[in-house]
Design goal:
By secondary structure, the chain is of the alpha/beta class. It is built from eleven helices and 31 strands.
Length: about 450
């Protein structure tokens, strides 16, 4: 096998990080999906970037499009330090250059096509196309080695998925005994099952290893194809399967658990469940693995603090993740994730919830099964997550499974559409910025 450095220096990773993430609204109202916080200290894109770094990939382009400022800032502050530009290493955030077309990217293949000039400048032999919005651990170098060994034109990451789960969600492959892809359907209504296993199918992970010249040729061909949506799964891959050497590479999980871990946290409920798993005694995703570390930007905040040890006023967090800068001041936190600089005030209760950071929970407030975005201030005595109809009346999102989601508030206590009156709270008059809630003064 080719030496480690000699092999990887000829590889360029392209991470597609421009998705709107509409199904994650309101968490994606002000940020791209890959920039959404996950697990308290991380962003979703940190998992793909960590996979790259742990795999030895030192040349990375991150293609952005929608609401990319926080993503750009996160990568600049947290990831540039791992790469040495003088040695040809980099992680560059690339907004739409519009060198070829003045429009937004039309699809995943178009996003790469419109950046061909930037990619060609690095003279790669191989290009790895990755998505920036999935949670998993994978050694891309092993996939590249398999690609070279098979003398493939393109290799596709493969995941075994239940047939019902794959319907209208995944590209589905038919693979012969040698690993060659002989059929490909993009998000079919009736996925083709694995031979001798009618309950599962081979799903595409949206991870591709291309020989660079072959990639450039196919992107240029697709750009001129009438009716193409310029998408890898929908157009490019189905077109090349009959005529090119397309192989599958089955996902080898670096998480090292009994069940392979791969999550698309594309909906609020999926996002909530994946986060809540992290506070389990033995979570499916191991964030404490020193052999495959997940890196991120760690702000210079003080350690978390728990104050008061009184019987009725005890600051404590049980079965929870508590990040830097948090203060649990006489409140109780159970089975929850507290993002950086969160404050839980006296007698407050937070259970089964995700607080993304800079959240302030007032005295005697109660929060249950909720996702609260950055900067939200919950006033004293308010209850969130106990009455879905009341939460909806306030203007909050309530998911199918009953999780209440409160959008980013930029530090202002505001509940957009409150009920007329509730639990000793008085509602102020509406304004263009929403409606504030304040504690009613005792007469």
């Amino acid at each position: 096998m080719v030496g480690y450095d000699a092999l990887m220096k000829d590889v360029l990773a392209v991470i597609l990080a421009g998705g709107r993430g509409d199904r994650l609204q309101p968490l994606t109202r002000d940020r791209a999906k890959p920039a959404v916080p996950f697990g308290g200290a991380y962003r979703i894109i940190d998992f793909t970037l960590s996979n790259c770094l742990n795999s030895g990939l030192r040349k990375i382009l991150v293609l952005t499009q929608y609401k990319a400022m926080s993503l750009d800032r996160h990568i600049t502050m947290g990831w540039n330090r791992y790469f040495c530009r003088e040695l040809g290493e980099f992680v560059d955030v690339v907004p739409p250059q519009q060198r070829i077309d003045a429009s937004w990217y039309q699809g995943t293949a178009d996003a790469v096509y419109q950046n061909i000039y930037t990619i060609e400048k690095e003279h790669p032999k191989y290009v790895i196309i990755l998505a920036g919005d999935h949670i998993y651990k994978m050694n891309y170098r092993l996939m590249l080695e398999a690609h070279i060994a098979k003398q493939a034109d393109v290799t596709i990451g493969l995941l075994r998925v239940p047939v019902q789960e794959a319907r209208r969600r995944f590209g589905v492959m038919e693979v012969d005994p040698t690993g060659r892809v002989v059929g490909f359907q993009e998000k079919p209504e009736h996925p083709t099952p694995i031979p001798n296993d009618p309950t599962h199918c081979f799903a595409s992970m949206g991870i591709y290893v291309f020989n660079a010249p072959f990639l450039f040729e196919e992107l240029c061909r697709d750009a001129t194809r009438p009716g193409s949506k310029h998408d890898f799964g929908g157009d490019v891959i189905p077109a090349i399967v009959p005529t090119s050497r397309v192989y599958a590479y089955e996902f080898l999980d670096e998480n090292r658990k009994a069940t392979a871990y791969w999550r698309d946290v594309g909906t609020l409920d999926a996002y909530y469940e994946a986060n809540m798993d992290l506070v389990a005694v033995d979570p499916l995703l191991n964030l404490y693995d020193e052999q495959w570390p997940i890196r991120t930007y760690q702000p210079n905040y003080p350690p978390p603090k728990f104050v008061f040890a009184e019987e009725k006023r005890r600051g404590q967090a049980l079965d929870s993740i508590v990040c830097l800068g948090c203060i649990v001041s006489g409140g109780t936190v159970i089975r929850s994730i507290l993002g950086p600089r969160t404050r839980i005030n006296s007698y407050a209760e937070v259970t089964d919830s995700i607080l993304l950071g800079d959240v302030d929970i007032g005295r005697y407030a109660k929060v249950h099964r909720a996702i609260i975005d950055k900067g939200v201030r919950i006033p004293p005595g308010v209850e969130i997550g106990f009455d879905p109809e009341l939460d909806k009346a306030r203007g909050f999102e309530v998911t199918e499974s009953g999780v209440t989601v409160i959008a980013k508030a930029d530090g202002v206590e505001h509940f957009p559409v409150p009920p007329p009156k509730f639990a000793g709270l008085r509602i102020s008059a509406p304004s263009q910025f929403g409606v504030s809630v304040r504690q009613e003064q005792q007469q």
